[in-house]
Amino acid sequence: MSIRFAIIAGVGPGTGATVARKFAFTYPVALLARNPANYEDAVRDIESAGGRAIGIPTDVTDAESVTKAVETARKELGGSGEMAAAVFNVGGRFIKKPFLELTQEEFESGWEANGRGAFLFSRTVLPLLLASASTSSPQQPQQHPPTLIFTGATAAMKGSAQCASFSTGKFALRSLSQSLAREFGPQGVHVAHVNVDGVIDIPRTKEWMKDAGPDSKIQPEAVSEDIFLGLGLGV
Fold it and tell me: With a threshold of 0.90, does the pTM exceed it?
């Protein structure tokens, strides 16, 4: 039996968890994160609400780890392997540091998460998204096309001072998404880069912008709402 499922990489207490909960209203979902503690609460919430969710510890910068994670999700959730959507929400390390003080390892960490990680994730999920797209026909069109979503940041549009590592990775992520959209859009897979232009209100950013007012940060729920409304997913 074939069951369409969704997979979200980079799940934590913010956007990843809220997006996973959104998808779970319609699809079984697989939640990926390096640290299981980042997805455990979301998995419990989805299961308690009657949805189907699994969490898989995954290092998106490691090809074998990504392959095993997607295969596990396919076997446990998807039957013959049709995928409704894949979301790459990996933030990577945020390093703000004078450029001449950056180590090579610090600089490359931005690209490893958002460049290499996005490449490995996309290369692994796209065959399943294409398989899902191939089941659509003029006689039996799909309500929503299989979709690959990348969540970006302000740094994907402009490189701020002392943010060379982070902005390089986010620029690479946006460029990859544009290339994939032009290649796989004609094949029936919707590819989108969602730019999150602001600080998301999560525990890690609690002390950031404390004096900027109550509306200075973006709520994770608002990001997930905009993703679904903007992409017409109707979930």
Answer: no
